[in-house]
Design brief:
Its cofactor is FAD. This protein is an alpha+beta fold and about 210 residues long. The chain has 6 helices and 7 strands, in the order E-E-E-H-E-E-E-E-H-H-H-H-H. A hairpin with a 6-residue loop joins strand 1 and strand 2.
Length: about 210
């Protein structure tokens, strides 16, 4: 079972996600800005004791990889430059809280597959790549960027003691625990990241289905 834990706190917010069946977790947490890489790594044991359940000490876990980085919200001006097209992390970055960077990248790949397959099958010319660039950038700007910023703000600025009652997203999550229809709607919410490029094919498909399922 894969588990994701988040903590709402102005300083000690974090995301801990189980990423393997044998119990490996990826932990993402906030830190003091403007330190060196060495200083961040030296502070890791102290920060784990501060933020994680049970205040674990270094002997209680094994670090397999550690990489301090600066969170950013950026998107390339164009997903296409001549014969080069961009998708996923090559095209945009956002904070990891909410998983929209990964989900958006998968959706990019789905749209790009449709566009390239259309060209390959003679159903579209390479102008479809300009439309791919336009629509994927629009989705990042209108959906991914504001939603990921809100996820991050929610972890840092909400009062953990009242978040369930005062935050609309958390209220929906609580309600969905006893409402299968709502739970399904929330689970399907990421569908908004997808975009069907086959609508821009200039010719009809002839006994060939190329609709991507990414």
């Amino acid at each position: 079972m894969y588990v994701t834990l988040t903590l709402i706190h102005p300083k000690n917010f974090y995301l801990a996600a189980r990423i393997t069946k044998d119990g490996l977790y990826r932990v993402t947490y906030g830190e003091t800005p403007s330190l060196t890489r060495e200083e961040y790594i030296a502070r890791q044991p102290m920060r784990y004791q501060e933020i994680l359940p049970g205040s674990p000490k270094p002997g209680d876990y094994q670090i397999t990889s550690i990489s301090p980085y600066q969170m950013q919200q950026r998107c390339t001006p164009s997903f296409r430059v001549g014969r080069v097209v961009f998708a996923a992390d090559a095209a945009h970055v956002c904070n990891p809280f909410g998983g929209l960077g990964l989900a958006g990248g998968i959706a990019d790949a789905g749209s790009l597959f449709d566009a390239l397959m259309g060209i390959h099958l003679g159903l579209a010319d390479d102008g479809i790549l300009d439309k791919y660039s336009e629509m994927r950038r629009k989705i990042w700007k209108d959906v991914i960027d504001p939603a990921s910023r809100e996820h991050f703000r929610r972890l840092r600025e909400r009062d953990a003691n009242t978040a369930r009652e005062n935050d609309e997203f958390f209220r929906l999550c609580v309600k969905a625990e006893g409402d299968e229809v709502l739970a399904r709607e929330l689970a399907m919410g990421l569908e908004v990241l997808r975009y069907d490029m086959t609508q821009y094919y200039s010719k009809k498909q002839d006994k060939v289905s190329v609709r991507s399922r990414l």
